[in-house]
Amino acid sequence: MADRRDFLKASVLGASALALAGKAGASSITAGRHVTGARVVSTWDFGVAANQAAWSVLGQGGHALDAVETGVMVPEADLKNHSVGRAGYPDRDGHVSLDASIMDADGSCGAVAALEHIAHPIQVARRVMERTPHVLLVGDGALQFALEQGFKKEELLTPESEQAWREWLQTAHYQPSVNSEVRSYGKTGLPGGSGNHDTIGMLAIDAQGRLAGACTTSGMAWKMRGRVGDSPIIGAGLYVDGEVGAATSTGVGEEVIRNVGSFLVVELMRQGRSPQDACREAVMRIVKRRPQASKDLQVGFLAMNRHGDVGAWAIQPGFSYAVCDSQRQNGLLPAKSVF
Ligand code: SD4
Predict the structure, then answer these.
(1) How many CB atoms are closer than 10 A to CB 8?
(2) Atom of ligand 1 nearest to the CA of 180
(3) What is the pTM of this model?
(4) Which one from 43, 70, 199, 248 is the annotated catalytic residue?
(5) What is the sign of the dihedral through the CA atoms of 254, 259, 265 and 266?
(6) CA distance 282 to 268
(7) What is the whole-number distance in angstroms between the Cα of residue 228 and the centre of ligand 1?
(8) Is there an atom of ligand 1 within 6 Å of 71 CB?
(9) In ligand 1, which atom is closest to the CA atom of 256?
């Protein structure tokens, strides 16, 4: 497949050159019918560093579930990343409120939503999965559970994020912008927005062929207090079925929830679509339902099937995803898009 050739070339060129390649570059890779090695993929340019952390698990023969948890903790801790974990931009009332989910190949899953004061919500999501009879804990109940589990209560609003919030308060205009992930992190040179949302979704397959996924975010900056996006909603922001594949999403969560996006991508793969084609179809469902609104919003899907093949698609140009396996540690690819 030409896409694979482009990907290999791009891996050599490095992440920034790839980003500049824009829509002309590869947007899916096919590693053959049966991948024998491990692979991890994740959304946006900050996925490169996250993948490397995940690879520290996968490269040692570790479990995909441990890999995705370890990987997404990198942007959760990154003070330059203003919408995942610590230093995330707050809601319109100044509270940093975090959403996260994790899912294993057998359908086990856990999530937290509107969780405050805990720096690594993905770890709490995993505890929900492994130590409770539930799937999703929210708000004060999620915080109470986290504290019972020994997590530290912290102030996550940094001076920089607080200053950005105070500047936003001067107009208090809520308008999610396209690809704000890029400018908020600021490395790729892809077209950006005003920096009010970003999310890491990560999918991995380990050397034993086990799939897992994780997704974590502080959601849309300046959101209403109590707003929950797609990221902690199993089937919307994340879905994994070990017999088929895995999918995750980024962008305006309301549109993803309305279309149960990640579940849809996995079901399309179950019907025989490639990961890229499944992502394209899921994006088109959003565009067809709301053609006018779609012109000004971004949603991107990223998918991996049970063979380790990867694909992505977005409404707008500018969505990138990072790929890491034994051949290449820091590939960053631009996804194809509707517009
Ligand atoms: C949300 N989907 O909370 C997340 C935000 C996001 O890129 O992914 N931004 O709606």
Answers:
(1) 14
(2) 7
(3) 0.87
(4) 199
(5) positive
(6) 8
(7) 10
(8) no
(9) 2
The reply to whether 171 belongs to the active site is no
What's the full length of the chain, in residues? Answer: 339
Ligand 1 midpoint to CA 162 (Å): 20
Nearest protein CA to atom 10 of ligand 1, as residue: 253
Q: Could you give the count of Cα atoms lying within 13 Å of 55 in the half-sphere of its Cβ?
A: 21
Q: Decide whether any atom of ligand 1 lies within 6 Å of the 220 Cβ.
A: yes
- CA-based Rg of the chain, rounded to a whole angstrom? 18
The residues near 260 (Cβ < 8 Å, ≥ 6 apart) are 235, 236
* DSSP letter string, 5-63: HHHHHHHHH-HHHHHHHGGGS--EE---SS--S-EEEEESTTHHHHHHHHHHHHTTT--
How confident is the model over 184-240, as pLDDT tens digits?
Answer: 433 333 333 334 347 899 999 999 999 999 999 999 999 999 999 999 999 999 999
Q: Rounded to the nearest whole angstrom, what is the distance from the C-alpha of residue 198 to the centroid of ligand 1?
A: 6
Ligand 1 atom nearest to 227, measured from its CA: 3
Between CA 54 and CA 336 the distance in angstroms is 25
> 218 CB under 6 A from ligand 1?
no
State which amino acid sits at residue 101: S
Atom 5, ligand 1: residue with shortest CA distance: 219
- The pair of structure tokens assigned to 183 is 């400018």
Taking Cα atoms as reference points, which of 237, 231, 240, 248 lies closest to residue 212?
240
Q: Is the CB of 231 under 6 A from ligand 1?
A: yes
Is residue 145 within 8 A of residue 131, CB to CB? The reply is no
Cα–Cα distance list, 253 to 33, 108, 117, 216, 270 (Å): 32, 22, 22, 12, 24
Tens digits of residue pLDDT in 54-112 = 999 999 999 999 999 999 999 999 888 887 888 889 999 999 999 999 999 999 999 99
User: Cα dihedral angle (280, 265, 137, 162), rounded to 10 degrees?
Assistant: -20
Q: Torsions phi, psi of 215, nearest 5?
A: -145, 135
Grade residue 175 by pLDDT with cuts at 50, 70 and 90: confident
